[in-house]
Amino acid sequence: MQIEPQNNGTQQAAIAAPLRPIDLERGEKLLYRLTEFGRLLWEVGIQVGPRQMIDLAETLNLVDITRPDDFYNTLKCSLLTRHEQEPLFEQMYQYFWFVRDNPNQKKSDKGQQVKREQRQLRLPPSERKRLAEHMNAKEQHKDMARDPRQSERKPSTSARDRNKDDNDLGDPQSGAYSAIERLRQKDFENYSWEEVQEAKRLMAEMRWNLGMRPTRRKAPRRRGSYPDMRRIVRRNLKYGAELIELTWRETKRKPRPLVIICDISGSMSLYSRLLLHFIHTISNGLQNVEAFVFGTRLTRVTRQLKRRDVDEAVHDVSKQVQDWSGGTRIGDALHYFNHHWSRRVLGRGAVVLVISDGWDRGEADTLRAEMDRLQHSCHRLIWLNPLLGSPDYRPLTIGMKTALPYIDNFLPSHNLDSLISLGNTLSSIDDSRPLRDAYSRRKAVEAWTRRKI
Length: 453
Description:
49% of the residues lie in helices and 11% in strands. By secondary structure, it is of the alpha/beta class. Helix 10 runs parallel beside helix 12, helix 12 packs across helix 13 (310-320) and helix 14 runs parallel beside helix 16. The longest helix is centred in the first third of the chain and has 23 residues, at 21-43. It is elongated.
């Protein structure tokens, strides 16, 4: 006996009923608005791509979009991948869906809104331009509707006095200097979108000078340390081969090569993009710079960072790297570097710059052996740690405690001032090497970790 399904007239009518033209038009408008919202999130730094938008469109069929809480949570779960970007997402959501088309609307119904933290709204340049054009159009419309006799009136004396007082508030140049000073001392982690753009501009204006190294060749000098025998004989032939005029030579000096190995794992996600801009500035400001990035594997990005446009260079690096914002295996990455790249890039007294927070999921013995080999292969090993800028920092992770005894300079990299200090350190590198005693340094690291805050 075959069991037939019960006839539910309501369900069959709902399933069989075709969509009305007005429903199709509303759906197309919603998809267009969702695409615009995804573009806005992408412009402010949230990674939103076609796959996330397709997943969002499929997910909206399963929720009731007439409920604001369900609509907000669906967008948040589909488009947001990092917890630290949640405040930025909430800010853009509030702007796009409630403020963008109604700039004069201050507050909406609190009962239908998710509670959000009150903070200043910062928009990308394209959105600021669109908003400015919209506001200018409204102002022009008001000016045309206004009584022309009112527009020709001269400002009153009190208004002129207020304008004069506003212009005499102080020197704008001193205000700009104080803003730059605050920006230089602010942690990269707390930057807004506009401050990131200003930091990029300041990085592009930095000038780098790496210490010079002696070469095996010698060049003629007026006052040198070595006699130039060929020139001496040639010049003194006119004196009957008597040595009357002496000429000298001095050792040639060239800039040292610089090798940068940067951590782009998940724990460095708040700093990695700005640090890549910093690496791009160094790569275009110095000669003989090699750049590598690593998470669970090592990737050479020297060719990608040679592009003049910094945004295009960072975009190429993000496409080239397969393990962006993933795990961290510092020992395995250094092992690959030591066995495949060190002979090519560590000659001629190279300086190695490692940028990492020390979080490592690999074996401590592997990291110890590779750090020892790397230190003996280079002239100076410098480690930059963004967490070192905190006053209560201690090297408690296994990776950082293992690597510290083999580091020549341990420096912070959490703000612009720390990068300026790094430039001073690089320019002061001379021919001498620091004292390298891993045993005593290991004791000092253990004492540091036991120190009470």
